[in-house]
Amino acid sequence: MVDLGCGTGFVSEYLENCEVLGLDISPKMVEVYKERHGIAVLGNAENLPFKDKSFDYVVSNFSLHWTDWKKSISEAIRVAKVCVGIAVPVKGSVSFSSFPFPDEKDILNTFFPKEYKILNIEIPFEGLDLIKFFHYTGTANYKGKNKLKTRGELLKLAKSIKGEYFRMLFLKIH
């Protein structure tokens, strides 16, 4: 199995009795993954460095929205023998963010998965803790149109944030 956009290995922690190879575009995340879970490679999900059908399963959790999702999902399908499982946040996630989350209809109409589910996953943080969460996940690095310019603006926003969620699309592609 390969975990695309493996990060620190959150998904691998839940995959018992599986040999999982992590792949991430960040050298730092590859090193962290190696320390925690073993084998990881530096690579881009849009152009996977693997032969066709080289893994039984391909998974990706909360990372393909950072990529050209059409290329990344196509690559996942190319290297999977059996199945691809993907969880990706879509439009409607995080009301205050200008992040360009993909539209679930675009994904569904491109890949026509036989199995999918859409869930709103509540973010268990509010205020400054939520801002720290976005900084930790890298979302704070997005250079969108609503970029905050001052510490005061950030603190004002942090006080107003409550009950946010990610609208998640879960896909299973055979």
Task: Give your account of this protein's structure.
- The radius of gyration is 17 Å and the shape is globular.
- The protein has a seven-stranded mixed beta sheet with strand order 3-2-1-4-5-7-6.
- The chain has one domain: Rossmann fold, CATH 3.40.50.
- The protein has helices at residues 27-37, 69-79, 104-111, 127-137, 151-160, and strands at 2-4, 21-24, 40-42, 55-61, 80-89, 115-122, 165-173.
- It has 174 residues and is α/β, with parallel strands linked by helices.
Summarize the amount of helix as a percent range. Answer: 25-40%
- Mind describing the biggest β-sheet? 7 strands, mixed
Overall SS class: alpha/beta
Name the CATH class. Answer: Alpha Beta
Q: In the CATH hierarchy, what is the superfamily?
A: Vaccinia Virus protein VP39
CATH architecture: 3-Layer(aba) Sandwich
Total tally of structural domains: 1
**Amino-to-carboxy terminus distance:** 14 Å
Strand order of the largest sheet: 3-2-1-4-5-7-6
**Alpha-carbon Rg, integer:** 17 Å
Layout: helices, strands, pairs:
Layout (H helix, E strand, L loop, with lengths): L1 E3 L16 E4 L2 H11 L2 E3 L12 E7 L7 H11 E10 L14 H8 L3 E8 L4 H11 L13 H10 L4 E9 L1
Parallel strand pairs: 1-2, 1-4, 2-3, 4-5
Antiparallel strand pairs: 5-7, 6-7
Short description, anyone?
The chain is of the alpha/beta class.
List keywords for this structure.
174 residues, alpha/beta, Rossmann fold, 5 helices, 29% helix
